[in-house]
Design a protein that fits this description.
With 298 residues, this protein is α/β, with parallel strands linked by helices. The chain has helices at 20-29, 33-36, 43-48, 71-81, 110-119, 134-141, 164-171, 185-188, 190-199, 258-273, 282-295, and strands spanning 7-13, 61-68, 85-86, 99-102, 124-126, 150-152, 174-181, 208-213, 217-222, 227-232, 241-246, 249-254. The chain folds into two domains: 7-155 and 260-295, 3-Layer(aba) Sandwich (Rossmann fold); 158-256, Dihydrodipicolinate Reductase, domain 2.
């Protein structure tokens, strides 16, 4: 049996408040604890320290190239996560990597940054949210050279803590969800919407969206048989959590394991890049972005 060639990945970042280039690269490459201790996102070395490397790393793929708009920051990520090459221009990765991780959550910049990789046919994982308007999403989808080339999700989409179907066995058919996240609707609502849409099979079901409040941001989403109220607490601290209500009771679900969620999502992207999985579909992305756009403050 022939061993598959190791995938070469390029990673792009950083954006304000987002340390994914550190965490995602470490999940593939492992990391240097002494250098990672200087990471400006203290939670990352904390949860990495609870893992055992190389046992918990993703095998068969490695981050080999990095670019950020701050070259010094890129060099620090590279030292912390053992990335051999720092490039001065994202397009320098073309021809040298097999797939790309766009590890920035500033959706307004995703289309321009993804363009050269989409047009060159490279699989690309775009950090959540992929876009904040359907028009912007459609422009990116039009650049795809093959179906499923653009992969995007919240890592919480398949999080074990939010396995809603499992709880249907305990509380009956889920009818309402009260969900809360820190930070803002435009960046963090996707962490709640993606698992709700995935776990309850709602991607193909149109939703009615009503913005209820701006401070905190509260948005009500209604499908024919299920409703959800999503609260984004802004600067106020909050867990990412859901209270799910069914005909037979309710359950409180709290997201806890960041490493496991990131690792599961990255594994799915690697399968997409290898052509063994379709990944996230265009229609799924459209359904999510429609809700995000409808819930934005006007």
């Amino acid at each position: 049996m022939t061993r598959e060639r190791e995938l070469r990945l390029g990673i792009l970042g950083l954006s304000d408040g987002n340390g994914h280039p550190y965490s995602w690269s470490a999940i593939f490459n492992g990391y240097d604890p002494a250098v990672m201790a200087e990471c400006p996102f203290p939670v990352i070395p904390q949860y990495l320290a609870r893992q055992v490397f190389p046992r918990d790393a993703i095998l068969g793929a490695r981050v080999t190239h990095i670019w950020t708009q701050d070259n010094e920051a890129a060099r620090h990520v590279a030292r912390a996560t053992r990335i051999p090459r720092v490039v001065s221009d994202p397009e320098a990765m073309l021809g040298e990597v097999d797939a790309v991780l766009l590890a920035r959550d500033d959706a307004e910049n995703h289309r321009d940054m993804a363009r050269p990789f989409l047009l060159n046919g490279l699989p690309i994982y775009i950090d959540k949210p992929v876009a904040l308007t359907v028009d912007d999403l459609e422009r990116m989808l039009a650049m795809q050279q093959k179906p499923g080339q653009l992969f995007s999700c919240s890592a919480l989409r398949w999080a074990r803590e939010f396995n809603l179907a499992l709880h249907c066995n305990e509380i009956g058919q889920i009818r309402h969800i009260q969900a809360t996240t820190p930070k803002c609707w435009s960046k963090y609502a996707v962490h709640l919407l993606d698992p709700i849409l995935e776990q309850l099979g709602l991607f193909a079901t149109p939703a009615e969206v009503t913005r209820v409040s701006d401070i905190p941001e509260v948005v009500h989403v209604r499908w024919p048989d299920i409703t959800a109220t999503i609260t984004c607490t802004g600067a106020l601290p909050s867990d990412i959590r859901m209270r799910v209500f069914g005909n037979g009771g309710s359950r409180d679900l709290i997201f806890l394991n960041t490493f496991a969620a990131f690792r599961d999502a990255l594994l799915r992207f690697v399968a997409t890049a290898r052509g063994t999985s379709l990944g996230t579909t265009s229609n799924e992305l459209r359904a999510l972005v429609r809700i995000l756009e409808s819930g934005l403050a006007r």
